[in-house]
Amino acid sequence: TENAFKGGIIKSDIRFAIEQALRLNNIEIPFPQRVIHSSK
Predict the structure, then answer these.
(1) I need a labelling partner for 14 at 20 to 30 A (CA). Which of 4, 33, 35, 39 fits?
(2) 4, 11 in Cβ contact below 8 A?
């Protein structure tokens, strides 16, 4: 169980490092957007 917990910490650290690198380089990843047109 200790290895499973440590793996989760490593994954979290990687995600935070990626987010920080993106912010430092002013890189934004847009959220998916769906436009729905309705005719009456």
Answers:
(1) 33
(2) no
